[in-house]
Amino acid sequence: MSHKVLALKLRPKKFEELIxxxxxxKSLKNSxxxxxxxxxxxxxxxxxxxxxxxxxxxxxCLNCEKGILxxxxxxxxxxxxxxxxxxxxLIEVDAASRTKVEETKKILEDxxxxxxxxRYKIYLIDEVHMLSLYSFNALLKTLEEPPEYIKFLLATTNxxxxxxxxxxxxxxxxxxxxxxxxxxxxxxxxxxxxxILIENSALKLICKVSKGSMRDALSLLEQAIIYCGKKIKExxxxxxxxxxxxxxxxxxxxxxxxxxxxxxxxVIIKLYAVGVDVIYICDELIILFHKIALSKIIPKYFxxxxxxxxxxxxxxxNKFTIDEINIYYKIILKGRKNMLEIPDLKSGLEMILxxxxxxxxxxxx
Length: 365
Description:
Belongs to the DnaX/STICHEL family. Its EC number is 2.7.7.7. Keywords: ATP-binding, DNA replication, DNA-directed DNA polymerase, Metal-binding, Nucleotide-binding, Nucleotidyltransferase, Transferase, Zinc. Residues 37-179 form the AAA+ ATPase domain. It catalyses: DNA(n) + a 2'-deoxyribonucleoside 5'-triphosphate = DNA(n+1) + diphosphate. This protein is of the alpha/beta class. It folds into three domains: 6-174, Rossmann fold, CATH 3.40.50.300; 180-241, Helicase, Ruva Protein, domain 3 (Orthogonal Bundle); 246-360, Zinc Finger, Delta Prime, domain 3 (Up-down Bundle), CATH 1.20.272. The chain has 18 helices and seven strands. It has helices at residues 6-9, 22-33, 51-63, 77-83, 101-109, 133-144, 164-167, 180-194, 200-210, 214-228, 234-241, 246-257, 261-273, 278-297, 301-304, 311-319, 322-338, 345-360; strands at residues 40-44, 90-94, 121-126, 150-156, 171-174, 197-198, 231-232. The chain has a five-stranded parallel sheet, covered by helices on one side. Strand 3 (121-126), helix 6 (133-144) and strand 4 form a beta-alpha-beta unit. Helix 3 runs antiparallel to helix 4, helix 9 (200-210) packs parallel to helix 11 and helix 17 (322-338) packs antiparallel against helix 18. The longest helix has 20 residues, at 278-297. It is elongated. The N and C termini lie far apart (62 Å).
């Protein structure tokens, strides 16, 4: 029996099934409702937020046999073929693997032929920013004055790399990262259907690590199910992806307060021994010092962010001056950038923390 991964199994087939991106969905629905259809659409945003999924749904809305509809029938031949990726008039192009101008020209040569099955012949070009400059130039004329039966749906994770001449000829939609609350709510529904038990802290951690990417969250959840079985715990997620419990990050900060170099090194050695990502430790320290600064400046900080009061975080904010917090934040942030250039990440992190301790002791390093 073949297994389908969650990210593919649960890929939305209608606008109503999408998580987030209400601003984009509303615009596309109005476009369909009022028959104000542009010839080129550009979807931008980070990975896993729904760019190609929205493009496919929109393509289906334009080519459903029942008409140009917001709610497609899902029963006609066109809808079913689009759902399984075998619709001849929806041509999906991976620009990352077809960057050469010759390949772009070959694709554009087929534009003169009208659609075979559908109302429109649609070109969905993913990661369009990967095309060469010559490819963009070849695309430019066709993009400006395409035949009436042609629609271009472009998707990119890097808008800055696309020439302005291309961008100006498209309707642009910026997809936002998906809020963690929406992700948690959606993943809980999936887990109920899949009959999987999970700790709330584990679910929050999955969403946090995914950084607003639903595809990343689903992939990580799939990984967790394979690793843990029917019961997923936070400690298993931590082991699985090389993270660390926040208590270890707090131990590092406590050691910094006490200017205890030995304790700092012991914690780092322990974390490194169990395979915790050093960059992740840096990121967590940056986030923590940001929270320390806010809790020091804003008396009702936890009420503002709707979280339970973290007594240890308040303790940290009382132990540092606001100037110290700013200085240490900048040291870690700068060190985080430089770590990508050094051969040994562990020693890089140790030097960052050593610099903070020496600064506290007013010793230059």
